[in-house]
Specification:
The structure is a homodimer. Chain A is α/β, with parallel strands linked by helices. Chain A contains 11 helices and 13 strands. The longest helix of chain A has 18 residues.
Chain lengths: 311, 311
């Protein structure tokens, strides 16, 4: 079943210990939709500028991603420059140019309205809420955010979170959002803000899901214990950019490909999230995410299973 | 089958956000032997001073831990004072008094010589090696160390590591020992120093085991992929002191209780390590480790399994 994703389609300049690149296709919605496209149909809502070329468009077309919701505006696309050096888990932002994203007013094509899944990638929570409100018929809403929105746009973010079913953020963001340093108490606080499930990403250590009531149809009274999915210990991380968005794409894409959201589906989705994140960092930019096979994905899923399974 | 453990039996003064205590029984060998005592027979080699009371002795006696190898010397026992505040994963050392440990010359009681398992808890690697050499018949040797020995006693430590089968250290220690920041490459380097298996502890995120050749009898040519065990997300950590030593005790104790070291036994041992570590931090000092039941341990093991298992 189709996912509509709203978020940035952008260009990045990135430097890592393994090398660097200039103004390559990137953005949360790009990584998310590439990762999710291996599991289900994906439709993108975003805005790009005149620097978005036919070659960039082809990256989406090859993966059969619906881009009718990508608006082409005058000016330049969103641009981000960052570097990873001492700590591969944290980027140092060198430059952020909103460009055409500064005046972005998301428009949802009519053809997207039968999407059962909606993912609100990391953008201004006001825009996230506008898209969420414009798609009242979706069955499940996933979302992401970041420190900047948590710190400086909390009121708007809380309004958005009230309409998000599954929130995916990292450890630091969870503690910041909850204003609580204990990871379990912080997760419980976040679940009180609207989300029925919270996936806390731990970078190289994987991710933990916490569950509130009502996330699994027909089990509203049952308490669901947390679930931990691993990340793969990697001998080389070429470029961490997009790992979180690729995790979200694999996670939400797998859920959208299944008939019903059960605890087992959620757990496998966490593993597929880790799998897609592990591929993303193996090459610069979106390179690895463009040309995967289902066989490669299933082999790595088996490796993740072996990494954690007792029996 | 019996484990002999050599390490510190000490007194700690500790302050955490949950409270504080003064000069309570502690030390790596104490935590280790309490945790291991739920799985197998444990024999301790250590030295204590005149401040070690009948009440302290009773803590070992209740758990049927053999203390004939604990020497009673004139003076005071090893003393450590530390606090945990901003970061529960890292203690700030306020005071270390070696006291009777300063001139410790480990003596192995004859009755310990049929031990098939030996654990070298975190002490001077020269002493670790002396004990290891004095027990040539043991079947499996586990060991621990810390930054201080890695930085300032590397030569001695490398001689000790050549005789250790399973080394348990944390992320920082692994990278420091290997002088390599990548966790996978660092692990491979450490496996080149002698250990046939390396268990890297990640604090609140669990632990990862890396395997070299020859760790599992009869499978010397097979490549064994890493294994990740979780830690339990805890709503309250009262006192992190002894978590690592309790992990080691649960881990090594379970291995010693089994007929043969297989990959499945190793994996379950990692889970039992996490289980004992999670109990240790629930109360101040050794309190929780003194009065567990096998039922409590098995219930928590089931929780760990549920936390990570797909199916």
């Amino acid at each position: 079943m189709a996912i509509t994703v709203v978020g940035s389609v952008a260009f990045d300049s990135v430097s890592t210990p393994s090398g660097s690149y200039e103004r390559q296709l990137a953005g949360a919605a790009t990584y998310f939709s590439l990762a999710a496209s291996y599991f289900t149909d994906v439709r993108v809502v975003a805005v790009v500028g005149e620097d978005f070329t036919a070659k960039d468009q082809a990256v989406f077309d090859v993966r059969k991603i619906d881009t009718r919701g990508i608006e082409h505006a005058q000016g330049k696309s969103f641009f981000w420059a960052g570097s990873y050096h001492d700590n591969l888990n944290e980027a140092k932002t060198l430059q952020t140019d909103l460009n055409v994203f500064g005046s972005f007013a998301p428009k949802i094509p009519d053809a997207y309205q039968d999407s059962q899944f909606l993912f609100l990638a990391n953008i201004d929570p006001v825009l996230q809420k506008r898209v969420r409100d414009a798609m009242p018929h979706v069955k499940l809403v996933g979302g992401d955010t970041m420190n900047y929105w948590i710190n400086d746009h909390r009121e708007n973010l809380l309004k958005t979170l009230a309409g998000v079913d599954i929130l995916l953020i990292n450890d630091t963001e969870t503690k910041l959002l909850a204003e609580n340093k204990n990871p379990v108490k912080a997760a419980q606080d976040v679940l009180g803000m609207g989300p029925k499930a919270l996936v806390v990403k731990h970078g190289e250590y994987g991710a933990t899901a916490f569950f509130g009531k009502g996330i699994f149809p027909g089990t509203s009274d049952k308490v669901h214990h947390p679930f931990r999915a691993p990340a793969l210990p990697l001998a080389e991380v070429v470029d961490p950019t997009g790992a979180g968005d690729s995790f979200a794409g694999g996670f939400f894409g797998y859920i959208a490909s299944q008939v019903e959201l059960t605890p087992a589906v959620f757990r496998r989705a966490m593993f597929y999230g880790g799998v897609m994140g592990s591929f993303a960092v193996e090459r610069f930019g979106t390179e690895r995410m463009q040309h995967l096979t289902r066989d490669e994905i299933e082999s790595r899923f088996a490796l993740f299973r072996e990494l954690t399974h007792l029996d």
